[in-house]
């Protein structure tokens, strides 16, 4: 599934700015293993504790999210929502 970054987050802060209803619409991307390993990704992969207490993947220090409006791999319905949500490239850059 497509993953997104949130402009309100700060890279390397170790925290997410998304909580409450935000997490309903933009659930945190959980790691599939410990330590996380992601094929084809060139950015630095890590984890933080999300605001709901779950473990959330980060890329270059930015928390990663799914969008509840995406239903199939390749969907990008969350791109540019409110001009703060962006698809993330394999290098960890927001695609604007």
Using brief descriptors, characterize the structure shown.
1 helix; 96 residues; three-stranded antiparallel beta sheet; globular; mainly beta
* Number of strand elements: 6
- Beta-strand content: 15-25%
Number of domains: 1
- Strands across the major sheet, in which order? 1-5-6
If you compute it from the alpha carbons, what radius of gyration comes out, rounded to the nearest whole angstrom?
A: 12 Å
User: What overall form do the CA principal axes indicate?
Assistant: globular
Order of helices and strands: EHEEEEE
Description of the molecule:
It is a single chain. By secondary structure, the protein is mainly beta. The protein has one domain (1-96). It has one helix spanning 21-25; strands spanning 4-6, 45-49, 55-59, 62-63, 85-88, 94-95. The strands form two sheets. A three-stranded antiparallel β-sheet has the order 1-5-6, with no helix packed on it. The chain has a three-stranded antiparallel β-sheet with strand order 2-3-4, with no helix packed on it. A hairpin with a 5-residue loop joins β5 (85-88) and β6. It is globular. The model has no long low-confidence stretch (mean pLDDT 95).
Topology overview:
Elements: E1 4-6, H1 21-25, E2 45-49, E3 55-59, E4 62-63, E5 85-88, E6 94-95
Antiparallel strand pairs: 1-5, 2-3, 3-4, 5-6
């Amino acid at each position: 599934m497509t993953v997104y970054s949130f402009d309100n987050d700060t890279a390397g802060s170790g925290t997410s700015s998304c909580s409450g209803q935000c997490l309903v619409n933009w659930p945190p991307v959980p790691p599939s293993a410990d330590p996380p390993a992601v094929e084809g990704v060139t950015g630095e992969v890590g984890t933080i504790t999300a605001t709901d207490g779950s473990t959330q993947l980060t890329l270059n220090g930015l928390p990663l999210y799914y969008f509840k409006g995406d239903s199939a791999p390749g969907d990008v319905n969350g791109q540019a929502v409110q001009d703060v949500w962006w698809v993330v490239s394999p290098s960890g850059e927001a695609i604007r």
